[in-house]
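question for whoever is on the cluster today: can someone run the full assembly for these? two chains, 488 residues total. i dont have access anymore since they changed the login thing
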Amino acid sequence: MATRIGIEVSIALADAVKLCNPDVIAAYPITPQTHIVEHLAELVAEGELDAEYIPVESEHSAMSACLGSAAAGARTFTATSSQGLALMNEVVYVAAPMRLPIVMAVANRALSAPLSIWADHSDLMSVRDTGWIQIITENGQQAVDNTIIAFRIAEDRRVLLPVMVHLDGFNLTHVVEPVIMPEQEPVTKFLPKNRFPLPLNPDRPVAMGDFAPPFIFTETKWAQEVNIRDSRKVIIEVWDEFSKAFGRQYLPVEKYHSDSAKVLIMTMGSSGETASVAIDELRAEGMDVGQVRLRLWRPFPFEELREAVKDADVLIVMDRAISYGGPGGPVASEVKAALYNQARKPKIVSYVISLGGRDTTVSGFKDIVKKGIEIAARGSKNEYEIYGVRE
Amino acid sequence: MAKPENELTWKDLEIGNIVTAPGSARVYESGTWRSQRPTYDFKKCIKCGLCALNCPEGCISPNKDGYFEADLYYCKGCGVCPRECPTRVIKMVEEVE
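^ ran it for u. tokens below:
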């Protein structure tokens, strides 16, 4: 029987990786991802985990080693953050069209400059179009569960795509949380052996990541698009199966008191739990407010989003990144695009909050909801609002 | 592969565009990038093969009479062969449509 324990989320995530019995881990340490890979290195060194741990000299090499390892059919894990993700960017793009089922935990952190080691989503947004499946987690339990789920989705014959599991740096990676650690046996049952269909094998040579001239490149890109778009069905199916086996359910868009609420706040990542407390307090004050949380960032859950917000009058979307000189919050701009052609849609207010580790508290979220309702009523010339900046 | 590559649909592609047979790039007609083509006055040719040795594309080989000639399916028209030819057999001329 799995028991609830108090554990640092990074350690719990590394233990979840161990439960998945990976063959290869290639990683370079970077704050705030460090504890994840340190603990994995420790597990391998102490003989508790029978895997190849490749201590590479950079993140570019880490992802390159992961490509080779996954191409050989090995179950492959890595983790990074911020500048590390930026350094490996070139190779991150290669994994998805090559259909390599790598799992990567990303401890979300601001990108320089100025230097910041604290959480926001600028690193997450920098890999938006890499073709990876991207799952966003909100607490330690979700990070643990979705690490196990990520291997199952990635290696599914109908998917064969790399998966990122995002968890906010420090706010999640460095806190001790109550986590139910799954037992080995049900995880082994849930996660069948990885069988990559055309692995690198000297007896049956193949070439991967080859040159594609203009007459075939468009076809390769459309195949990639259909592949990730269709993965949505499998992701939902795997989440359902996980729920049957472990009793915890995940959805692409999760609702909190949102079914009849006229005003909704939308969050992505760890700040969602703080926002939930604000929603509780506002409802206690008699306000008709609810929350939707985006769990799946790629493939983007268009249908579930439209369904979740169809009865709302106001949708206040939180972002922890800026698209400079553009529409502001990347989440809000995608939500706007997803709803633009709908006959009935809420007024959307875009808020950028919590950059580079700044906390947005419960009273902050309450303030945002109240201001958001005002802005929706009177309109605004701003593309987006930025919360808490000193004028 | 059953179909020529330029007729493949996205559904025909191998998983991850993996190439399962060697030498498949041979079908790519890369000579279409050319803006100049080599022409030959074989009367002056001494069959030394310097043009073939220096061709960056490796697309020059002896024809049926033993004279060295570029395969225009691959030749990019770079102009290295006329510079290297010691007897001035080769002249580059503009490609005209």
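summary bc i know u wont read the tokens: Chain B has a mean pLDDT of 93. The longest strand of chain B covers residues 36-40.
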